[in-house]
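Before anything else, study the sequence and C-alpha cells given here and see whether the fold suits the sequence. Record follows:
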Amino acid sequence: MVGVASRRAAETMIANGEVVLNGAVVTELGTKVNPQNDVVKVNGQTYSLAQKLVYILLNKPKDFITTASDEKGRRTVLDLVNAKERIYPVGRLDRQTTGVLLLTNDGMLANKLMHPSSEVIKTYHVSIDKGLDTVHAEKLANGVYLEDGKTAPAELEIIPGTKSREVVIHIHEGKNRQVRRMFESFGYEVDRLHRVEYAGLNVQGLQRGMWRYLTDREVKSLKKLVASGSEISIKP
C-alpha cells in the first residue's frame, strides 16, 4: 500500500479504520485508487501515489536487446540505465544498431511517438558494402516494396567522399528492421547502422552506452511534436 506496509498489514490498517481516501475512511478491501488524483492518508499522514515520470536518452551500443527483458538472458538496454523508475524503450533498435534511444514510463507519450499518424522523423547513418547506385537511391527515396508493404517516401543524402557507401536516410515509419531491409532489397549489405536522431533528439556529447535525463525543454518539445503532428528540432 503506497510502500507503507505489506498487503496483510495494509488489510489490518483498513480494518482498523486507519486508512482515509479523499477524506473518507476506507472500509472495503481492494478499494480502487486513482494514483493521479486521489489523496490517501494513513494514520493522518498523506502519501503520494502519483508516479514520477522520467524521460531518458541513451546512446545505444551494439549487442544490447531493445526490450525490458529477454527470455534468452541476453543483455538489454535496461542493463545500461540505472534509473530507479520502471521504464521501457520507445520503439526498437535491433541488436546491432546503435544510436538514439528514448526510454520512459510515460506510456501516453510513448504511444503517441510510436503511432504512425505522428510521423516522427528518424534519421540513420548507413554504411553499406558497396557504392549505392543512383537508380537504387531514387527507388529508396520513392518507397520500396517489402514483405509487409511498401515503405513511405524517404529522404536520402549520400555522404561526400565515401564512394557512395555511406548514406544518411530520414524516415517516419517504424517497420521492423526497416532500414536494413530497404537496402537489402537491392542487394546491399548493411555494415553499420547508427540512429543519428529521433524526434529531434540526438546523442551529441554522449559516449556509446551512456545516458542522460531529458531536459524539461526537450520533454515539452516532444509533447508539442506529437500534439501538433509536425517535426521540430530540439537543441539540448
Residues 231-236 have pLDDT under 50 and may be disordered. Helices lie at 7-15, 107-114, 134-142, 178-184, 216-228. The two ends are 38 Å apart (CA to CA). The domain at 55-228 is CATH 3.30.2350.10 (Pseudouridine synthase).
